[in-house]
Structure formats: structure tokens, C-alpha cells
Give the backbone structure.
Amino acid sequence: MLGHWGTGVTIVATLTRSGDPCGLTANAISAVSLTPPLVLACVERGADSHDALRSAGVFSINILALGSEDLARRFASDDTAGKFAGVPYNTEASGAPVLAEALAWLDCRVHAEYDGGDHTIFVGEVLAAGARDGEPLMYHRRGYHRLAE
């Protein structure tokens, strides 16, 4: 039934123990608090990036722009080695990868973790953020869409 809920599409990115970037496509994110600025990202415990995020203690939330379907599909795949191949990114305050083509991004340090069944709810303190003009990529009923005018 939650497939009827339309959401934005993000890539949650972090670093492995060896310092390599890793990440996954996610739509279970939310604002938590304005003071201090806190957000959450729900990450499946079996996801390739879950343990890396827990170990690194930092992550970015990269909100995807319209036209980024290929990137969303790539980061939703199980191909852990190829996700960042040819994908430009930089780092901000936490050192987590921030995607160059993100419509908006939040750079976070893990503030708290909570059990969420088969997911971990990572609450992040926002250390830095940025945005550019554009339309967001939307997800609804297993497909990518644009906002209607």
C-alpha cells in the first residue's frame, strides 16, 4: 500500500573502512528537528552500505534531480563495486561523498541510531548543506516521475 505514497529519490552515501565511497538509493528519509538540524535515513540492515555507514559515522543525503533515473537505478543495484564508477563527487565537512549532480544535499554526522525492524534508523546532525535550481526526481508505484505543473 505504501507504493501509493509518492516520494523524492535520494542517494545516501558514506565511506567504507578503507575510505572508498559507497551508497544506496533511498526514499525513507525525513527531517527530524530544526534546532539542532537533524534528519533521518532508514537503511536496510542487509544493504551493502549499512555496515559502512555504521562504522564511518557519517553520511550524505543526495536529493536527485529529474533526469537522474539511471543514477537511482545504479545505486539501487547489488553491484557494490561499480556504483561510484565515473560518478563525480566531492566532500564537505564530514568527508562523506556528496554527488556533484545532486539537486540538493545534506552532509551529516550520525547523531543516533534506532532499531527499525529490518532497517536501522540513522539520525544525522546536518553539518553542511547545499542546493541548486531544478526539479526533483519523484518515485511512485515502482516508477520514476516528474512533478506536475
